[in-house]
Specification:
With 535 residues, the chain is α/β, with parallel strands linked by helices. The protein has 18 helices and 23 strands. It has a nine-stranded mixed beta sheet, sandwiched between helices. The longest helix has 19 residues, at 115-133. The structure holds glutamine.
Amino acid sequence: MQTKYVVVMGSLMSGMGKGGITASLLKMLQLRGYNAVPLKFDGYLNYDCGTMNPFRHGEVFVLDDKSEVDMDFGMYERFMNKDLTNVSSITGGKLFSRIIEKERRGEYLGEDVQMIPHLTNEIICMVDEAAKKKRADALVIEVGGTVGDLENGYFIEAMRQMASMHTVAFINLTYVPVVDAVGEQKTKPAQLGIRGLMQLGIKPDFLVCRSEKPMEERTLQKLALYAGMPKEHIIDDSTQHTVYALPLHFMDQHLDTMLLERLGMPQSRPNAKQLDTWKSLVARIDGQEKKVSVAIVGKYVYLKDSYVSVKEALVHACALNNVRLEVEWIESEELENGKHSPDELLGAADALIVPGGFGKRGIEGMITAIRYAREHRVPYLGLCLGMQLMVVEYARDVCGLKDANSSEFEPGAKHKVIALMEEQRGIRKKGGTMRLGDWAAKVKSNTIMRSAYKASVVHERHRHRYEFNNRYRGLMQRKGLVISATTLDGTLVESTEWRDSFGIGTQAHPELKSRLERPAPLFAALVREAAAPKR
Ligand code: GLN
């Protein structure tokens, strides 16, 4: 079967949840037994997300194959329960560098290289390559940004051209606001969005309407008229109790059936077992009486997108453990210079997480939080930076190395218990140069790691430059710190633990592989511990 294409574009503004819609479309096709593959266009000129600040752009997501991609990939993987690859990410930076390389090789000899057709052809070529490589039945393409932006204009034009070569269904995500004074749903912004797309030569097949409350009959009729499509093709995307409910909400509106019809794909039946599992997991999210409160102490907490995988891994772990999640976001600087006492900010927490991060700001506040957790036996999970700071705290307070630090924050510290990895020393380039992607670790028996993973070798994703300094291994182990996992050759420490209470730091980012159908083992263990009756 020839690959079919679905293109998701947003009009009016960003932040309406295009990623969730794309992930839901992928899930629906997957439930019907199709090999659905995502593709994301990002118009920015960075080669990838690796050099972006999470505070501006949200979390940098890492795949097994070491690529540093947009956080939407996290959403796709969490829905699909499938490991994706770099092929699915097409950025402006990648595109332009391919064009320039070709031009230098003389592949356009004699021509002036233009946006149309050279750039647009290159996009179509990359899309075809992805379809072929992944043997996709359907490629679901999310166009980053908003229709009308300069950045993604060439992607949209390429998609318009592609529609004359392949079967392409266009989905327009739009916003239907409710103006408080009248309480009426307003369709004008959506109309303008459709008009914007039509001016670019694209007539959407489906209109997905983001709104706070369910679409009213009047609104549907009006939009159907303006969009020139059957009313059934106007899809309600009103707020659900969890984003994971979206595929079910769309299936209730028969979007999957209509999409298959539009693409000329056979109407296979949804896999009943997988659908039931998904339904029961969705029902378990937020449904319980028993609550677990998890404090996340980080430096990017004002932008929740910076830690989206951590939050979602907790959602998965809570669904598994049948508890309701409550997250306390704590800006680590609030714990510095006596602004707030840890008791004040952490006293009610059932568990603590210190997530990944870079740079010196807020570090001491995180260390204060970790000390509080160790001394008060609050279950603790440290992720990458969170493991490194767990080591610093232990070195300072238990091993008596008062000025212990990471050389990332205090290059002149006497006891650099966390130091730059050997192979990182000569590296000056910033893009794609960290220790990235999937790495194996061997796990010691009788540890939190072992009981969480129930395996002696585990694979998780990484993204770091600094590491536990092996010179301090002996001393810190003698003082009770448990080194529960290392790389297979034993050279790098992969996880550390407290001996007397539940505390585990991992050099990896297990949150990146957590899925609703397969929660990350360490998060599951943390939540289980947090929900257990207090000692
Ligand atoms: N900044 C630390 C390092 O580079 C931690 C990185 C992280 O938390 N992802 O090793």
